[in-house]
Design a protein that fits this description.
The complex is a heterodimer of chains A (969) and B (420). Chain A is mainly beta. Chain A is 6% helix and 61% strand. Chain A has a domain of 113 residues: Immunoglobulin-like, CATH 2.60.40.10. Chain A contains seven helices and 51 strands. In chain A, a hairpin with a 4-residue loop joins β24 and β25. The chains are: A mainly beta (969), B mainly beta (420). Chain A: This is Outer membrane beta-barrel protein.
């Protein structure tokens, strides 16, 4: 372990944080304000000894002799209009502010819809520390001038009908703050560590910008759009009339009139030790109608992405608190990976509606994406496998593996979505092209401690493949609605979805194998080539018609709802496999291998008609609660046919099956107003799994001696019964953010397909798929989350746990063994945030499993991880974060526990006036202890594998964030 | 005298009376518009104050809550000298309480809905119309007296109407602007009039407040629980609000007269000819949605002595929609600008939450206004003032000590001062 870099780093961190705290710019960030009571504490400049005053008074329309309830009252500093605090008046028109600065001129502004703002200047005397403003008079606006009224100040929060609005101008933040930083300041809004947003306990289902989704992710909007572009944030519930039980809340960010266009991006490069490097680029443009972005990345530190929007998230500007939410390397990934990727997206809104609330319901959008990725890696791994043969002893196998791989892909997709008043339409296409090359060498040694037989197997593999895939999808639906004009219901609840897919691929492999044992007559050598060509097409059609009784019966009184549906799936796959062996004694001359060369066509048809009966009950007591209970019973049948014709006659298989696959669900929701909301659901479902041609009649490749398959024409499909229970709880008591989830499931698989394995005297594995006994499994998952906010401090705690149990049988050397597998995991975590600058967290994670196979073997493995981290970020200045993971793993394949610690740290600085420049030093796996260690357990085998993984490196990166919002000056 | 002239006159008179009598045997009661009080109301200039400024009595009567008597909220409240009759919000049950709030009886059953509920003060009975299929007569203790099936043919479809009793055997109903499709299975023979006078057996004997043909099918827009027919200041008088005209009529046996005509500022008023404009057919709701400041109707009208109480609401709800007006002084007070004080123990006198459909006050009787407040609101107020050391009247102190916010709503009784 290299001490020097660690000492250097600790010194650097301490030094810089000292410099940073002394050098902080005057960030007059507003702290949390309690609506019905206290005042916001003043910025750090003024000492606490001044913040001791109280202000009380009553807001009244004196002319008409009545007080104003729920009016906004705001206190500002008279000199510079700095916001001190705000609240709503109570039922008696009274307001009470505490912790207001004494001895400084202040002004108070009362505002309410239909009234002119009223302003009063005052000063709290230092000796009494309190002032009673008495009646603050407010006058109604002159009706004629209402449209022209210019408000001198903007109330921070207002209730307009059923929408809660926050005016961004009332909150002063750092000039480079983004929407994420603004949301953290709003009362009632909680942003959880996993990115979920809740407002007064209610989870937010969507975050929109001007009524539309922003580049396909809330995170992209939250971390890139500057707070200064925002006019107001609206929070409201949608579809409340349709179904109060499932009312969803949405957040809509309304941008200022002159800031509806903008560009933002990032260009970054970095270089580090062990010749590691990274380069990223992103440029995005948005306007009311169009959104377009371009991204690119090139690195060798396991930072990969598969879509344009995930690359946009990695390259987001981030303001204060999220600056440390960086995409880090995937340390668990095998090998040294070089990744090149890039793409382009565009979306164009054809909707001309200007009201952003109405626009969010009427989509008319065209979208397109193009994405290219290319990665290459070299993987070196070693593994140890222990196989118990019961009375026949144990098989020990060690193997080592090297492979060089490259793969690339190009994907293009587009979609058009339109929603009408009573229906919607969606069309999309997807085209992709892919290819890969790989070269590898494998060597393995097996030893049977009972027979003393030793064997060795070496092989070299060389493969290249390519493929193209195209799919098209069309979906639509219409809704039944009531037309008051004719007093009739119109249309029907009809939906359909059609998908077409086509695939074409080629693969060429050359494999050289040599097998030796201490019985020389069993030695073998192979030089075999495989040329595989396949193409397939698939059609899926899904239709559904609901509320059948309402359509057939005039003035239907039957409370049950019936709907009918059908899913039809037809697929066809043609495959050709040419296998050739080297003619012994020649060089480069091959002859066909008649046992493996194959030409086959597989057609499968799956037809599933269904009829669903449903019934709902609801009960509501005004002001108390709303409860609903729904039942769904689905009677469904499945007809499946499989027809394979092949050159290898053993694979000429024709099967057809017919099964009933019913399901049923009960759902209950209980919304106790202002208290909590709980939902329960219980679901029973069935499904059938059909064995594939490969499982029924595999072709034995005698050059692959690790696994020689056998044919089992008697293999039958499995039938699964599943039962799932879920429970969700959300507290809705203000200031008590708490939610809990519970999931329980049990399943039973009849005629479970399992392995029957024989180990021959030469340590070769002969394998067959058979139908075993009924498999039973159980799962449990639960988690609890709680957030507590006290002034600037936020504590978030979460606890998760899970357990699983599987019971099934398998065969080893002809003997039937019952296998039991148990696994469990728990995790607990506490995260602390201090305003938006400091954060820290501590967590504990445990996962373990145990497998018993009759009295043949008992294998266990477990992992403990303790982690802690800490971070700080000063806007426009220094930021730093560090995290340590202590790991402890143990398994039956190891003699002792293995301990290793991964410690990562980042340290950086944002410069330039708009924080658009960044320099960052990253230190990864400082203690140089990362190892690619993995344990696998299956039936009677346990494998421990180590591979080459990314280990200790230091990297220095420079980044520039070009940004511009609004018209050019 | 000229015999020929005499005989011609007699013949003409007979002919005329024959036609009058044969016109379905229904008489038309003319509307008396001779003494209409025109009132100028500017809601934005209404006054406010506190409870003791305007009310002499404010009483809260908790309703006993047991498993059987628990209900959600009140859709209609009827008051007699010794009873409260509550038709609850799910419209399946009528609950009977005594004046102290003690639960007496519950009538109705879960599977059956009640569509109409009429109180006959003279016979001391109330009649419940179950699903348009039958009428059930009960006494004020909730005992079933008789059941009469409602047959459409016999009553000429009057079983669809809510009857308001004006005497022991006579009453009236309001028809809206019914469509006059004579081929419709539900065609009513009394089309063309807004008010129908009926006997206790639901047979129509006269009608009033006619409307022209071009107004048939006029869609009437009332928010939630707003009432266009309310009890007047005597047992046999009702007030009726005519849609879109801001006019209040008083209805008494065989007499219909317009009592008041409200005038609002231009920005809050409907344009001329709003009801007869055929281009607005079926589009009136959208029109109001675009003109949110315009008052739709004057509803929930009560008169107590020299004071009037009414609701003038527009789509954009304000705190000045429920108003009191004093006929002597002309002073206008907004109900929601009356703040609580010690005289009513700081308890609520109207719903505090943003609520579209409720006006709180839903009936009047013997000089008092009656409404209801939910227990949730009562207890919220109680919690809010815990540290104020308020002395509550003994029955309320008992209520706050032993009951909770999930209890039945509480009846509110208000008595206005003579001169507000």
């Amino acid at each position: 372990m290299n001490i020097k870099p660690i000492v250097l780093l600790i010194g650097l961190l301490t030094g810089c944080s000292l410099i940073a705290s002394a050098q902080k710019k005057d960030t007059t960030a507003l702290k949390q304000v309690d609506v019905k009571g206290a005042t916001a504490p003043l910025p750090k400049k003024l000492s606490d000894s001044i913040l001791v005053g109280t202000v009380t008074g009553t807001l009244k329309d004196s002319l008409h002799n009545y007080v104003l309830r729920s009016a906004t009252v705001t206190i500002y500093r008279a000199a510079d209009n700095e916001l001190v605090g705000f609240q709503l008046t109570n039922n008696y028109g009274k307001f009470t502010f505490k912790q207001v600065p004494v001895g400084i001129p202040l002004k108070i502004i009362g505002s309410h819809v239909s009234y002119k703002d009223s302003e009063k200047k005052f000063l709290i005397p230092k000796n009494t520390k309190t002032i009673e403003l008495g009646t603050v008079t407010i006058d109604r606006t002159d009706r004629v001038l209402k449209e022209v009224a210019i408000k001198a100040s903007v109330p921070p929060m207002q209730m307009r009908g059923d929408t809660l609005e926050f005016n961004a101008a009332a909150f002063k933040l750092d000039t480079n703050a983004v929407i994420d930083d603004l949301l953290r300041k709003l009362t009632g809004v909680t942003i959880w560590a996993d990115g979920k947003i809740t407002v007064n306990g209610r989870p937010i289902s969507r975050l929109l910008v001007d009524g539309k989704e922003f580049f396909g992710g809330a995170k992209i909007a939250l971390q890139n759009i500057p707070k200064n572009s925002v006019q107001k944030i609206q929070v409201y519930q949608v579809d409340k009339e349709k179904d109060p039980a499932y009312a969803q809340s949405e957040v809509n960010v309304v941008l200022k009139k002159d800031k509806k266009k903008g560009t933002f991006g990032k260009i970054g490069v970095g270089g580090g030790t062990s010749r590691h490097y990274q380069a990223d680029g992103m440029m995005a443009y948005f306007s009311p109608q169009t959104q377009a972005s371009v991204v690119g990345a090139f690195n060798d530190i396991n930072k990969t992405a598969s879509s344009v929007s995930s690359m946009m998230e990695f390259n987001s500007f981030k303001g204060g608190s999220n600056i440390n939410d960086d995409n880090h390397s995937d340390f668990r990934r095998d090998g040294r990976n070089i990744f090149r990727g890039g793409g382009f997206t565009m979306s164009h809104d054809l909707n001309q509606e200007t009201d952003t609330r109405k626009r969010s319901n009427r989509q008319n959008m065209l979208r397109g994406e193009l994405f290219y990725n290319n990665s290459s890696n070299t993987i070196i791994s070693n593994s140890n496998t222990l196989t118990s043969l019961g009375t026949a002893g144990n098989l020990n196998q060690t193997s080592s593996n090297t492979s060089d791989n490259t793969n690339w892909g190009l994907r293009s997709n587009g979609s058009y979505s339109k929603s009408y008043l009573h229906g919607s339409l969606y069309a999309s296409y997807n085209f992709s092209s892919r290819g890969a090359n790989s070269k590898g060498e494998q060597m393995s040694n097996s030893f049977n401690d009972d027979t003393q037989r030793q064997t060795e197997n070496r092989s070299t593999n060389n493969n290249s493949n390519d493929g193209r895939n195209f799919s098209l999808s069309l979906r639509g639906n219409t809704n039944r609605y009531f037309e008051p004009k004719t007093n009739r219901y119109k249309s029907a609840n009809l939906s359909f979805a059609y998908t077409f897919g086509a695939d074409d691929s080629n693969s060429d492999t050359r494999r050289l194998t040599s097998f030796t044992s201490n019985v020389a007559s069993e030695n073998r050598n192979f030089d075999r080539t495989y040329a595989n060509r396949s193409n397939s097409t698939q059609h899926t059609l899904n239709t559904n018609l609901g509320q059948l009784l309402d359509l057939l019966i005039h003035r239907n009184r039957i409370r049950w709802d019936i709907s009918v549906g059908n899913t039809l799936n037809v697929s066809n796959r043609a495959e050709r496999n040419d296998v050739n062996d080297l003619i012994t004694g020649t060089v480069g001359q091959y002859q066909p291998n008649t046992g493996l060369t194959n030409n086959s066509t597989l057609t499968t048809v799956n037809e599933r008609p269904s009829i669903t009966f449903s019934r709902s009950f609801s009960k509501s007591f005004e002001n108390r609660f709303y409860k609903s209970l729904s039942f769904y019973i689905n009677a469904q049948a499945e007809a499946f046919s499989q027809r394979n014709t092949a050159l290898q006659s053993v694979q000429n298989i024709q099967r057809s099956y017919f099964n009933f696959v019913p399901s049923a669900t009960v759902r209950h929701s209980n919304d106790q107003y202002g208290n909590y909301r709980a939902e329960y659901s219980l679901n029973y479902s069935t499904s059938v799994n059909y064995p594939s041609i490969f499982q029924i009649a595999p072709l034995a490749d005698n050059s692959d001696l690790n696994s020689i398959p056998l044919v089992n024409l008697k293999l039958k499909p499995t039938y699964r019964h599943g039962l799932n229970f879920s429970y969700d709880y959300n507290s809705q008591v203000p200031k008590n953010d708490f939610n809990a989830e519970l999931r329980l499931s049990a399943a039973q698989i009849e005629r479970n397909i399992t392995d029957s394995v024989f180990y021959d005297a030469l340590n070769r594995t002969v394998r067959k798929y058979v139908n075993g006994k009924t498999n039973r499994n159980f799962r449990y998952e639960g988690n609890l989350n709680r957030t507590i906010k006290i002034k600037n401090h936020q504590f978030e705690g979460s606890f998760e746990s899970g357990a699983g149990y599987d019971l099934f049988n398998s065969f080893v050397n002809g003997q039937d063994y019952d296998t039991r597998q148990a696994s469990w995991n728990t995790a607990a975590r506490v995260i602390y945030y201090l305003s938006s600058t400091w954060s820290g967290g501590v967590g504990e994670y445990y996962s373990g499993n145990k497998t018993f196979q009759g009295d043949l073997s008992q294998l266990t493995s477990y992992t403990w991880t303790t982690n802690f981290g800490f971070a700080f970020a000063f806007p426009g200045s220094f930021f730093c974060n560090t995290k340590v993971n202590f790991n402890n793993t143990k398994s039956s394949a190891q003699a002792d526990n293995i301990y290793y610690t991964i410690w990562n740290a980042d340290f950086g600085y944002r410069f330039f006036k708009n924080a658009s420049g960044e320099i960052k030093l990253s230190a990864l796996d400082i203690l140089h202890q990362n190892r690619g260690l993995q344990n696998y357990v299956s039936n009677n085998t346990i494998t421990q594998r180590t591979s080459n993984v990314l280990t200790q490196y230091f990297m220095l990166t420079f980044a520039y964030y070009p940004r511009g919002f609004g018209p050019r000056k | 005298m000229n015999l020929k002239l005499f005989l011609q006159t007699v013949f003409a008179t007979c002919l005329v009376s024959f036609f009058c009598v044969s016109a379905n045997g229904q008489k038309i009661v003319p509307v008396d518009v001779s003494r209409v009080d025109t009132l100028r109301i500017d809601p934005s200039n209404s006054m406010g104050g506190t409870v003791s400024d305007f009310f002499t009595e404010v009483e809260y009567i908790p309703l006993e809550t047991t498993k059987e008597s628990l209900f959600g909220s009140i859709s209609k409240l009827e008051i007699t000298d010794d009873r409260y009759l509550v038709w609850e919000s799910s419209r399946r049950y009528i609950l009977i309480f005594d004046k102290k709030g003690k639960f007496l009886k519950k009538i109705g059953s879960a599977g059956v809905g009640i569509v109409h509920f009429s109180l006959n003060r003279w016979t001391k009975q109330f009649i419940v119309n179950e699903q348009y299929a039958r009428y059930k007569y009960y006494d004020l203790d909730g005992n079933l007296l008789k059941t009469v099936p409602a047959t459409a043919e016999k009553d000429k479809n009057t079983s669809f109407m809510q009857m308001h009793f004006l005497s022991a055997d006579k009453g009236f109903a309001d028809n809206y602007y019914q469509a006059s499709d004579t081929t419709d299975k539900y065609y009513k023979t009394f089309n063309g009039s807004l008010i129908t006078f009926m006997g206790e057996d639901h047979k129509v004997y006269s009608k009033s407040l006619q409307f022209p043909k071009n107004q048939t099918g006029l869609e009437t827009i009332y928010f939630g629980n707003f009432q266009n027919i309310t009890r007047g200041d005597a047992d046999s008088v009702y007030y009726y609000s005519k849609a879109f005209e801001y006019s209040i009529y008083s209805i008494s046996p065989d007499r219909v007269k317009q009592s008041y005509q409200m005038m609002f500022p231009l920005v809050n008023s409907l344009p001329q000819g709003f009801t007869s404009d055929t281009t607005l057919r079926n589009k009136r709701w959208e029109w109001f949605d675009k003109n949110r400041e315009v008052i739709t109707n004057v509803t929930d009208f009560y008169r107590i002595g020299n004071n009037l109480m009414f609701t003038a609401a527009a789509f954009s709800r304000t705190d000045e929609d429920v108003l009191f007006y004093n006929l002597k002084s002309g002073s206008l007070v907004a109900f929601k600008h009356i703040g609580r004080d010690e005289s009513n123990s700081f308890l609520p006198i109207y719903y505090s939450r943003y609520n579209y459909s409720n006006t709180t006050i839903s009936n009047c009787y013997r000089g008092s206004l009656y409404g209801s407040i939910s227990s949730l609101d009562m207890f919220n107020a109680f919690e809010e003032h815990k540290d104020r050391k308020i002395t509550y009247p003994p029955h309320l102190a008992d209520y706050f000590k032993n009951r909770d916010r999930k209890d039945n709503p509480v009846i509110l009784r208000l008595k206005l001062k003579e001169n507000i």
